[in-house]
Amino acid sequence: MARQTMLSCVVAALWLWVRLTCVDGQWIDGVSALAVDYYRARDVKSVIAFGCWNHTQRHEIFHTLTRDGRMMVQFVPDLAKVHPNPYSKGGMLIDATCESALNEMRQMGRELNKLLVGNLFWLFVENPPNDTHRTDGDLAEYLVELYNDRFHSLETMPYTNVVIGVRNPETDSWTLVELFKPYRNARLVPEVIVTGFETTCGGENLLRKSLARLSARSAARRRNLQGYSMPCGTATTSPEYFKGMDDRNDVHDLFTKANFPFIRELMYDLNFTLNMVQVDAVGYKNNSTFSGVMGKFQNRSIELGCMGCLMRTERLEVVDFMVVTLIIRSSIIFRQPPLSIVSTSSSCRSASACGCRQPKYPAPT
Ligand SMILES: *[C@@H]1O[C@H](CO)[C@@H](O)[C@H](O)[C@H]1NC(C)=O
Ligand SMILES: *[C@@H]1O[C@H](CO)[C@@H](O)[C@H](O)[C@H]1NC(C)=O
Ligand SMILES: *[C@@H]1O[C@H](CO)[C@@H](O)[C@H](O)[C@H]1NC(C)=O
Ligand SMILES: *[C@@H]1O[C@H](CO)[C@@H](O)[C@H](O)[C@H]1NC(C)=O
Ligand SMILES: *[C@@H]1O[C@H](CO)[C@@H](O)[C@H](O)[C@H]1NC(C)=O
Ligand SMILES: *[C@@H]1O[C@H](CO)[C@@H](O)[C@H](O)[C@H]1NC(C)=O
What range does the record give for the signal peptide (predicted)? Predict the structure, then answer.
C-alpha cells in the first residue's frame, strides 16, 4: 500500500516536473527558434546572449542556435566585458524577462552606447502578461513607454538595429517591433515589423521579406531628424579675418569654409538645424584630453563637426570620420630663389611640382 502511494507520488512529481519543464521549455524553445529565424534573416553568424538562464536553458539555446542556425553563440556574464567586432555582423540576444540583466544595463548607462555602434543586431525578448495589449498600436505604445524608460541614456540612433520580440502566450506567436530615436533625447519611434509571427519552417524567409518591406518604408523616417538642433563644432583659427562661411575672398580657415556646403546639404537632407559652437582650434590630444573641437567631442557637448579636419589616428578615439572632401598632397619644397631667376625660367609650370612659391593657403589642421 505504502509502496503504491510512494509510486503515485513519484509519478505525480515526475508529471509536475515534466509539466514545469514543458511550460518553461516553451518560452526557451520559442526564444531560441525566434533567434534562429531573426538572425538568419539578418545574415548574422555569431550571437552574444545575455540573460539569467541556468545551465539547462543555456544548453537548449546553444543547441538550437548552433544546430538550426549554424551560428556561434557566446553567453556573457557581464555586458561591460563585451567587445564586438565592429567590422563584422553580430547579434545580441537579451532576455528582457530577466530582471538582473535589465538592472545591469541600467547601471551601465552611457557605457552601453559603445555596444550600439557597429553592426550589432539587438533582439530583446519580452513575455508580457496576457492582458497588457490588444491591438498593434496599443502594443507599440506599451513598448515605447517601457523602453523610453529603459533606454533613457541609450543612444538608439537611426543607424542602430534594435528589435523587441513580444510573445503572445495565447497563440504562441511573436510580434516584432523595431525601435529607434531620431536624435539623442527624442522619444522612441516604433515600427512594427511583423505580427502573429510563428517560428515554423519558412519563418526565416517570411521575416526576411518583412524586414525588406520595413526598411523601404522606414528609410525616410530614419533620415528625418525632425528639425533637431544639432550641436555642431567649428574651428576658426583666425577669428580676426572671419566674415562668415561664404566668404571666399579671405584665405584663412579655407578648409572649414570649403566643407561647410556639405554640412548645409546634409542639414537639408536629414532635416536638422545647426547649433554652432565656435572654438579657435581643431584640437590635439595631450595627456588623454583633447583640446579645441576634439575636446568638445570628447566632452560630448557637440555631435557633429561643421568643418573638415585631418584624419589623425588618435582623433578616432572621439570621432568618426565621414568622407574625404579634400585630397592633400605634399610636394618637395626648397628655399625661394630670387625673383629674377624665376621670371627667366620657362620650366616652372606647376606650383606643386616646382615648389617655387610659398604655399598660398595655410595648411589645414
Ligand atoms: C533551470 O530553470 C528551469 C526553470 O526555472 C527549471 O525548470 C530547471 O529545473 C532548471 N534547471 C537546472 C539544472 O537548474
Ligand atoms: C494567458 O491566456 C491563456 C488562455 O487565454 C491561458 O491559458 C494562459 O494561462 C494565460 N497566461 C498567463 C501568463 O496568464
Ligand atoms: C522636419 O522636421 C519638422 C519638425 O519635426 C517637421 O515639422 C517638418 O515637416 C520636417 N520636414 C520634413 C521635410 O520632413
Ligand atoms: C599638455 O598639457 C600639459 C598639462 O597637462 C601642459 O603643461 C602642456 O603645455 C600641454 N602641451 C601642449 C602641447 O599643449
Ligand atoms: C597627465 O595625467 C595624469 C593623470 O591625470 C597626471 O597624473 C599627470 O600629471 C598628467 N601629466 C601632465 C604633464 O599634465
Ligand atoms: C570639457 O568639460 C570640462 C568640464 O566638464 C571642462 O573643464 C573642459 O574645459 C571641457 N573641455 C573642452 C575642450 O571644452
Answer: 1-25
CA–CA separation, 124 vs 165, rounded Å?
6
Say how far residue 321 (Cα) sits from the centre of its chain: 15
Choose one of 23, 26, 56 to mutate for the ligand 1 pocket test, by most ligand atoms within 8 angstroms of C-beta. Answer: 56
Confidence of residue 8 (pLDDT cuts 50, 70, 90): low
Phi, psi torsion values for 294, nearest 5 degrees = -60, -35
Q: Which of the ligands is closest to the CA of residue 287?
A: 5
CA distances from 357 to 185, 332, 342 (A): 51, 11, 10
155 C-beta neighbours (distance < 10 Å), count = 19
* Closest C-alpha to 257, from 248, 266, 249, 268: 248
Which residue's C-alpha comes closest to atom 7 of ligand 3? 226
Please state, as a whole number, how many other Cβ atoms lie within 10 Å of the Cβ of residue 339.
Answer: 9
pTM for this structure? Answer: 0.76
Domains plus CATH for the chain? Answer: 24-223 (3.40.1010.20), 229-315 (no CATH)
Does 130 contact ligand 2 (Cβ within 6 A)? yes
Closest ligand, as measured to the CA of 291: 6
Chain-centroid distance of CA 30 in Å reads: 27
Question: Is ligand 2 within 6 A of the CB of residue 131?
Answer: no
Residue 130 Cβ inside 6 Å of ligand 4? The answer reads: no
- The residue whose CA is least distant from atom 7 of ligand 4 is 286
- Closest C-alpha to ligand 6, atom 4: 299
- Rounded distance from Cα 9 to ligand 1 centre (Å): 21
